[in-house]
Amino acid sequence: MRTDKTKTGFTLVELLTVVSVILLLAVVGLPAARQVLDSFESSGSIRYLVSAALANARAIAAREQAYAGLRFQQDLDGNQYMIFIVNDPASAPSAGDLIVDPTLTGTGLANGFRAVAGYKPMRLPTNVGVMDLLVRTDPCNVSDVGDTPIVDSDLDNTNSDNLDDDGRNIYLTDTTSFSIVFSPAGKLVIHKVRTRNRHGWTTDASTDDVFNTENNVDNHLALFYQDDYAERGLGQEPSRNNFVIYDKRALEAVDTDSRWTDYLQHLEVIYISPYTGQIINR
User: Which one has a higher pLDDT value, 66 or 46?
Assistant: First the structure.
């Protein structure tokens, strides 16, 4: 007696039909997916991220009973991060002291700030950044705390005087490297800030993987140059109470000799309440 076998699997026509439907859905869905990504990198989303980080920084200042805040700075690849910092003016520990007590810290600077232990730097979305739109008055003096509004000529990459040894614009580095600081009472203050590794050393011996010397950062042993390199646009400066959010793609699309006139000056300035630390609209 003959029995019919059950037919399994798909025919070639059926497989081609399924693949075609999947491709069609993917093509239709791409714009929607792009909108989701764009919305994540929108000004509103960055405001939320910064606002949450500011609240955390304010809590750190109250907990540590020290001036503490939020630092913005780019790494070697141009990615901008938020870093929690705390004022640590204690004398720099010696290598011998660290052998006895490896937890010792101290920047050795009255206005020295280091990264807060236990808090990893947080990277901002790739195509969005923040600026304070100010640069130090004397870019050759790391101790000078004067500042001035940025102008078109500062961002002109055709001027070799504006570039460091690696071809990075020192004024762009300056205006994207700034801090927002709270007092131990939780009030927003203007405080002189100079970042340094947690050991306060200017030699390459520090193992701090956040702020460190030029050699250690170039060798990928740390993320950010400490404020000891005026020739790179990094030195002591006052903390800020406002900032702007910018689109990196839009900035790149503007001629470097007119970035302020054609783009940056039109951005909304975002202020921070001196009493609550929250972002406020004006």
Answer: 66
Query: Does the pLDDT value for residue 12 go beyond 70?
Result: no
Nearest to 270 by CA among 62, 122, 86, 48: 48
85/109 Cα distance (integer angstroms):
14
Mean pLDDT in the chain?
Answer: 89
3-state secondary structure of 135: strand
Three-state secondary structure string covering 77-112:
CCCEEEEEEEECCCCCCCHHHHHHCCCCCCCCCCCE
**In the structure, what pLDDT confidence band is assigned to residue 4 with cuts at 50, 70 and 90?**
low
**Residues 6+ away with beta carbon under 8 Å from 156:** 162, 256, 257
3-state helix, strand, coil in the chain (%, to 5): 35, 25, 45
Handedness of CA 253, 80, 245, 177 (dihedral sign): negative
**CA nearest neighbour of 113 among 72, 90, 85:** 85
Write the CA distances from 83 to 105, 124, 141, 237, 281, integer angstroms. Answer: 17, 11, 24, 16, 24
pTM of the model: 0.84
3-state SS track over 257-271: HHHHHHCHHHCCEEE
